Amino acid sequence: MYSTVAQLARVNPFSAPHFQLGQENVTLRKNGTCQVQPVRRLAAAAAPEGEYSCEYGSAHFYAMCGFGGILSCGLTHTAVVPLDLVKCRIQVDPQKYKSIFKGFSITLKEDGVRGLGKGWAPTFIGYSMQGLCKFGFYEVFKIFYANLIGEENAYMWRTSLYLAASASAEFFADIALAPMEAAKVRIQTQPGYANTLRQAAPKMYAEEGIWAFYKGVAPLWMRQIPYTMMKFACFERTVEALYKYVVPKPRSECSKGEQLIVTFVAGYIAGVFCAIVSHPADSVVSVLNKEKGSTALEVLKRLGPKGVWKGLTARIIMIGTLTALQWFIYDSVKVYFRLPRPPPPEMPESLKKKLGLTQ
Fold first, then answer.
1. Quick check: helix, strand or coil at residue 184?
2. What is the distance between the alpha carbons of residues 276 and 270, in angstroms, rounded to a whole number?
3. Mapping DSSP to helix (H, G, I), strand (E, B) and coil, where does residue 53 land?
């Protein structure tokens, strides 16, 4: 049995969050004596008292993680609006916008430099809300699921833990993002429809009602949930691999700046895989929000196997850069506000004893 457990532990390189003993439960025995049972709860890695500004898993911790998500997603997505605009136009009109450079050239010729910023307002609002839910809820679900299955299972099945936590968080994040994403795509891909969010939102509601803002939520789930699962799982694994095989010293001996460089590199690697996994659904979202009365399945059939990959190069550049910057900003917020940042994983002592790895 233990050999099987050992194999599972070896093939599953993700870490469970660290545990510490918390409050005690007192159970009254039949003979009248009391039995004290320690309660395990999640906590950050051991650190000198006063080093952290809050407890790992506290309301303050979740709130600051949500704030970090707002900054990381809102600012980065807004910064790459020109590239996103060209990418969307390649997806919905590949005959006119045949490449990234052609897309930028035509956009500058028709709309000027100012035209490259179309859709910045719904992008900033929408992705700020998405970042709040994505990163904040990820921390919530990660701790919740880890507590649910226990310390040893959380370590052995941590790949599934990270995937489940990120998928759960993104489900709610996309509901927050959908209205602004729909408005953004209308502004960017329908010439003459609207130039600003204040023009687009009332017009969309007048034409199709509230459904105009949420008809793309299912394709968003198709695009964003696999993207986010890859984003978090690949990032966590890459960070661990970098510290294990590339960085010449333990994380505890690295400066905060060195740790943030590792975060950026791992984020970019994760971003490349994210872009590839989620691109077909992204193409469907772009076309669907441009057209009235279409369904995701109809758009998918019409685009075909080749059509769904249009604009992939632009999206790899965009998402790779975005993901790296998002993780860098998010981790920087944690460093600045002195939030708990658990180090790379270690096998729980109880599991080591079961596997015969301790004397």
1. helix
2. 10
3. coil
Query: pLDDT per residue over 196-246, tens digit each?
Result: 899 999 999 998 899 889 988 988 898 889 889 989 999 998 998 899 889
Distance CA 22, CA 73 (A): 34
* Angle (CA) 74 76 80, round 5°: 120
Question: Would you call 5 exposed, middle or buried from its count of C-beta atoms within 10 A (0-12, 13-18, 19+)?
Answer: middle
Cβ-proximal residues to 34 (8 Å cutoff; 6+ apart), any chain: 26, 27, 28
Helices and strands (DSSP H and E) totals, the chain: 14, 2
Domain boundaries, the chain: 2-13+64-354
CATH T-level topology, domain 2-13+64-354: Mitochondrial carrier fold (1.50.40)
SS3 content of the chain, % helix, strand, coil (to 5): 70, 5, 25
Separation CA 27–CA 38 (nearest Å):
11
- Give 46-84 pLDDT, tens digit per residue: 344 458 899 999 999 999 999 999 999 999 989 888 988
